[in-house]
Amino acid sequence: MYKIFIVEDDLVIARTMKNHIESWGYEVKCVEDFRRVMTDFIDFDPQLVLLDISLPFYNGYHWCTEIRKVSKVPIIFISSASDNMNIVMAVNMGGDDFIGKPFDLNVLTAKVQAMLRRTYDFVGQTNLLEHKGAILNTSDTTLIYNDEKIELTKNDYKILQVLMENKGKAISRDTIMTRLWETDSYIDDNTLSVNMSRLRKKLEDVGLYGFIITKKGIGYMVE
Q1: Are residues 215 and 149 in the same domain?
Q2: 48: which DSSP letter?
Q3: 120, 148, 173: which is the final residue of a domain?
Q4: 189 pLDDT band (50/70/90 cuts)?
Q5: Residues 112 and 133 grouped into a single domain
Q6: Label partner for 167 (CA 20 to 30 A): which of 129, 131, 160, 187?
Q7: CA distance between the termini of the chain
Q8: DSSP state of 126
Q9: Are 171 and 160 in contact (CB under 8 A)?
């Protein structure tokens, strides 16, 4: 089931869109706190965003820019400011399409379905994992923190993936080693320690101190 993320501050319009799109079998979430748009986006991990321009706190162009820093998810702008300047600006900021208000719900649905077909018939879905402001994109194995992309080795990525997929849980060293080397054969325990030390140093270099916690006698975790 595809997930659609609606960023629209007019509650009547947002609920109308939500109810109509859900009737077509999609899962839909509307933003409620417009200071937490990126937090909600990462938690929901949608396959498409419907984004208004005029919003409380920050406008849609701002949120489009923030989303584009971490994701290539398709974004359709929906706005009554549908003059040529705003349409051009929306596309230049990273939008994929533009629908002017007022609009027909059937036109909205057709554009949503077309965008999903074009995007996901040939491309896998994006999956984002977030912790303490660090965003791990499992589609392209990158980590972004404070707008900086951090280069990860294969082992760096696998360690972060297993820990961030299990936030709040201690993961044993054996489990991590099996994920890293995909074998039940004996691996020198010190090898994991070396990999972990290098990864922690890399995280600290960009300000992520104490990101990975050692649980003595058990393993590691992020919390």
Answers
A1: yes
A2: E
A3: 120
A4: low
A5: no
A6: 187
A7: 29
A8: P
A9: no
Residues of the domain holding 33 = 3-120
One domain for residues 108 and 159: no
Residue of 126, 113, 111, 155 whose CA lies nearest to 67: 126
- Band (41; pLDDT cuts 50, 70, 90): very high
Residue 186's pLDDT band (cuts 50, 70, 90): very low
Q: What is the CATH number of the domain that holds 114?
A: 3.40.50.2300
Domain end marker among 120, 139, 156: 120
Any alpha helices (H) in the chain, and if so which ranges?
11-22, 37-44, 60-68, 84-92, 105-120, 154-164, 173-181, 189-205
pLDDT of residue 103: 85
Q: Which of 43, 35, 56, 61 is nearest to 5 (CA)?
A: 43
Three-state SS at 175: helix
Residues 180 and 74 in one domain: no
Q: How many domains does the chain have?
A: 2
For residue 117, give every residue at least 6 positions away whose Cβ sits within 8 Å of its Cβ, in sequence order, or none: none
